[in-house]
Specification:
This protein is α/β, with parallel strands linked by helices and 355 residues long. The protein has one domain: NAD(P)-binding Rossmann-like Domain (Rossmann fold), CATH 3.40.50.720. The protein is built from twelve helices and twelve strands. It has a seven-stranded parallel sheet, with helices on both faces. It has a three-stranded mixed sheet with strand order 7-9-11. Helix 4 runs parallel beside helix 5. The protein starts with a strand and ends in a 6-residue tail after the last helix. Bound molecules: nicotinamide-adenine-dinucleotide and 2'deoxy-thymidine-5'-diphospho-alpha-D-glucose (DAU). Nicotinamide-adenine-dinucleotide binds next to helix 1, helix 4, strand 5 and strand 7.
Length: 355
């Protein structure tokens, strides 16, 4: 079956893996990557597929209602996979407005454009799908008591980032309940892997260890995150987009909890070993700094529903995934240098028109 799908935020970390998977796996589909190319969007993430005939990139803000509506009409879009967002918690503490604008208003604008286009068609919502990618952070924070976030855990966001994502999740569900839009929401745990912007823990620390720069550990390093290899998230998105039930929520995660300080030690040992340094030599780079404001203690996802109902499970064990990831960043220093210098922004600045 032919489908025309907009993937928003496809030039970002997770979005680029989703675009790559869909472009390669479904040559009969047209995949339209709609991305504003903020600091976090980088078309170098998609070099390997940019010339494929079933791929199109459109530089556009999700807040541009008219632009998105016209694009949907022109391309006869029947599916939206929505990843575009401001995604970094520390930035949301400094600048919450941008998070409300993109994550809340942008999602609402996208929903309105999809509603306007799909309701104008004779078949209306039949065969359509609006799939919103969200985060486990909307559920708040767990104690060290073995409990897990399930799909029915009450929303309790603490950061401006998670508050904005929670709000966007509510809007998506409201469009199902009010207008009958065929929506799906998924909430995933922390992703790691290639092409992640080096403001996030894992790529930032790999790069710092390589260059022997201090590793700023927030608080005591005892906060727990639940890590999933990004390609496994993309595989879950594929399964859920095609087989998930309308109006349902699915949690995505690999039952893989780590204390920050323990993961940091794994990173140091792995980078040292791969660079031929004595393992653990760089432990003295660990530098405890002031804690993040409102720092959530623990996240842990129960993905039993997804595994039981749709048969998805992670393909990689953490040890294998982290080894692959460290290798990738060490082998792709040019990508890292472009990103940290900001050169990638200048390069793509004038290359694309808005429409
Ligand atoms: P990212 O910051 O790497 O990428 C975000 C992308 O969205 C960038 O390409 C950026 O240019 C684009 N974008 C931002 N504002 C836009 C706008 N107004 N219009 C169009 N495009 C815009 O983010 P990520 O880590 O890949 O996260 C993608 C999605 O997955 C987000 O919705 C995030 O909340 C969610 N999520 C992320 C994680 C994680 O661990 N990274 C985990 C669970 C869920
Ligand atoms: O849980 C899913 C979320 O995971 C996503 O929704 C977010 O978009 C994504 O950014 C991520 O949020 P976190 O805040 O958990 O990720 P981050 O990489 O920023 O931090 C991971 C942990 O490491 C967190 O406990 C804070 C800590 N940390 C982070 C940085 C950048 C440090 O100790 N030092 C640092 O310099």
């Amino acid at each position: 079956m032919k489908r025309n799908i907009i993937i928003t935020g496809g030039a970002g970390f997770i979005g680029s893996h989703v675009v790559r998977l869909f472009v390669n796996k479904y040559p009969e589909y047209k995949i339209i990557n709609l991305d504003k190319l903020t600091y976090a969007g980088n078309l170098a993430n998609l070099k390997d597929i940019e010339d494929k005939p079933n791929y199109r990139f459109v530089k556009m803000d999700i807040c541009d209602f008219e632009g998105v509506l016209k694009l949907m009409q022109d391309e006869k879009v029947d599916g939206i996979i929505h990843l575009a967002a401001e995604s970094h918690v520390d930035r949301s503490i400094k600048d919450p407005f941008t998070f409300a604008q993109t994550n809340v208003m942008g999602t609402l604008s996208l929903l309105q454009a999809a509603k306007a286009y799909w309701e104008s068609l004779p078949e209306k919502y039949e065969g359509k799908r609006f799939y919103h990618i969200s985060t486990d952070e909307v559920y708040g924070a767990l104690q060290f008591d073995g409990t897990l976030f399930t799909e029915t855990t009450k929303y309790n966001p603490h950061s401006p980032y998670s508050a904005s994502k929670a709000s966007s999740d509510h809007f998506v569900r409201a469009f199902h309940d009010t207008f009958g839009m065929p929506t799906i929401v998924t909430n995933c745990s922390n992703n790691y892997g290639p092409y992640q912007f080096p403001e996030k823990l894992i790529p930032l620390f790999i790069n710092n260890i390589r260059h022997r720069k201090p590793l700023p550990v927030y608080g005591k390093g005892e906060n727990v995150r639940d890590w999933l290899y990004v390609v496994d998230h993309a595989r879950a998105i594929d399964v859920i987009f095609h087989s998930g039930k309308i109006a349902e929520t699915y949690n995505i995660g690999g039952f893989n909890e780590w204390k920050n300080i323990d993961i940091i030690k794994v990173l140091i040992n792995t980078v040292d070993r791969l660079l031929g340094r004595p393992e653990g030599e760089d432990m003295d780079l660990i530098t405890y700094v002031t804690d993040r404001a409102g720092h959530d203690l623990r996240y842990a996802i129960d993905s039993t529903k997804l595994q039981r109902e749709l048969g998805w499970e992670p393909s990689l064990q953490f040890e294998e995934g982290i080894e692959k990831t460290v290798r990738w960043y060490l082998d792709n220093q040019e990508w890292m240098d472009n990103v940290t210098s900001g050169d990638y922004l200048k390069y793509y600045e004038d290359m694309y028109d808005n429409r």
